[in-house]
Structures are given as C-alpha cells and as structure tokens.
Design goal:
By secondary structure, the protein is mainly alpha-helical. Helices cover 69% and strands 2% of the residues. Strand 1 and strand 2 form a beta hairpin. It is globular. The N and C termini lie far apart (34 Å). The chain binds fe (ii) ion (2 copies).
Length: 160
C-alpha cells in the first residue's frame, strides 16, 4: 500500500506544481472543491487500473485532468450545454498546460459518455468514465445512490 501511495504521489507531483491546476481548489463541485473531486476520481481509477492491468499512468493523469476547468471557463446558465461542453474545455486546458497522450485525451473528452455521443475508445477511458459517475453520485448523495449507480453502470457497459 505504501508503494502504491508513493506511485500515486509521483504522478501527482507534476500537477501539484502547476499554478493553473491548483486553482481547482477554489472551485466548488458537488459540495466539495473540484480538486478534491478529481483527486478522488484519480485515486479510485489508479487502484482499479492496477486490478484490471491497465495503463495506470494514463488512467491517473487523464482522471486528474477530466474536469480541469474553473468557473471562469464555463457558462453555467445552460446546465445541459455545460454537461456536454465541459469535457472539451478540460481538454483544451489540459493541452495548454500539460503534455497528454492519446489515451489521456480520450479519457478527458469522453468522460461524460453517453451524454456526449462518442464512445470511449480505450478500456482506460471506460474505467475513468465509470468511476467519475460513481464518485459524482457518492459526492452528491453519499453512499446508497452511489452503489446503485455503480451497479447500473456496470450493467450498461456490459450490455453494449
Ligand atoms: Fe466532468
Ligand atoms: Fe468529474
């Protein structure tokens, strides 16, 4: 466990140093800061990527960047548009401040699937998209709803 925590910290180091990324700590998301949200999604995704033998570094980096935007970047007046558009804003910011690979790009811009139409291309993207949904529900409603949604997502991805 100690080794895994160290590996996560090593990946996170790059983000911790970036002043733009640190601004996520000033934004509220599901009653917490957006920095707490992306870290929770990234940590769960990190551990699960080990379990499923996926590309852990891309999973973790993509998860950390999946909601990389501040309230200045978005228009919250139309919530439906916000749900569809924020992955592309996060992708634009990610490319501006970090070097990202194809898997990370796919994780960021497809994480709202099926709200955004394009299907995740990699297993790494499916993982982060699923974890984000479970974590978002957990943060919004705490436990019971998150468990129900988790089961629903597993079911949805399995019938595709
Ligand atoms: Fe998001
Ligand atoms: Fe998210």
């Amino acid at each position: 466990m100690k080794e895994l925590n160290l590996e996560y910290s090593e990946i996170y180091e790059e983000f911790e140093k970036n002043s733009e990324f640190k601004k996520l700590s000033e934004n509220i998301h599901h009653g917490l800061t957006r920095l707490e949200h992306v870290n929770r999604v990234a940590k769960w995704s990190f551990y699960l990527s080990k379990l499923f033998k996926l590309d852990t570094k891309s999973v973790t980096r993509g998860a950390l960047l999946h909601d990389f935007f501040t309230s200045d970047d978005i228009n919250r007046e139309n919530y439906k548009d916000f749900l569809k558009e924020h992955p592309l804003i996060a992708l634009e910011n990610s490319k501006k401040y970090f070097e990202i690979n194809k898997i990370e790009e796919d994780i960021i811009c497809k994480h709202m699937y099926p709200i955004t139409r394009k299907k995740p291309k990699y297993r790494e993207s499916i993982l982060v998209s699923s974890v984000d949904k479970v974590v978002s529900c957990y943060e919004a409603f705490r436990f019971q709803a998150a468990t129900a949604v988790g089961i629903m997502i597993l079911f949805l991805y399995n019938i595709r």
